[in-house]
Amino acid sequence: MVYVITAACLDVTDRSCVDECPVDCVYEGRRKLYIHPEECIDCGACARVCPVDAIVWERDLDGDGHAHLGDAHAFFYRPLSGRPKPIGAPGGAGMLGPVGVDTDLVTAARPAVGDPATNRSTDPAAPAPEAQAQAVPPLA
Ligand code: SF4
Ligand code: SF4
What we know:
With about 140 residues, the chain is α+β, with helices and mostly antiparallel strands. The protein has a domain at about 1-95: Alpha-Beta Plaits. The protein has six helices and six strands, in the order βαββαβαααββα. The chain has a two-stranded antiparallel ribbon with strand order 1-4. Strands 2-3 form a two-stranded antiparallel ribbon. The longest helix has 15 residues, at about 65-75. The structure holds iron/sulfur cluster (2 copies). One of its GO terms (molecular function) is metal ion binding. Its cofactor is [4Fe-4S] cluster; [3Fe-4S] cluster. Ferredoxins are iron-sulfur proteins that transfer electrons in a wide variety of metabolic reactions. InterPro entries: 4Fe4S_Fe-S-bd (IPR017896), 4Fe4S_Fe_S_CS (IPR017900), 7Fe_ferredoxin (IPR000813), FdxA_Actino (IPR054830), RnfB_subfamily (IPR050294).
C-alpha cells in the first residue's frame, strides 16, 4: 500500500508534502507532484498537511484516484516527454531536483478555473478531472 497524489494537486503544488516527507520520496513535476510507489514508507505525514486533501492512501482511492496510482507508476517507470529513459528509483527527490515534466495525463489536464480546492473548472465544456484520469492506459 502507498499514498497517491490525486488530481486536486494540479496547479496547486505548494510543496507542503515535500517538506513533511521523512524519506524525501515526493517528486516534483511541472503541474503536479508524484509520490514514488517504492520509496514511500506509508507514514501518512504528507496527507495530513496537504491543503486540498490531494493525498490518498491506496486502499481509499476512488476511480479517479486509481488512475493517478497508475499515473505515478508512469511518471517513474516510463520515459517522460523529452527524456530518453525513465526516472526509475533515484532514492530521493532532493538529489534529482524538480523534474519539470509531467505525465501525459497531467500535461493534458485543463488548468483549474474556479475552485482550486477541487480543480473543477467553471468552463462547462471542460471535462471533469475524473474523466481525464480515465484516459490513462492500463499499466503494462
Ligand atoms: S501538499 Fe498537496 S497540493 Fe501541495 S504539493 Fe503536496 S499534494 Fe500537491
Ligand atoms: S506517506 Fe510518508 S513516506 Fe509516503 S510520501 Fe507521504 S510523507 Fe513520504
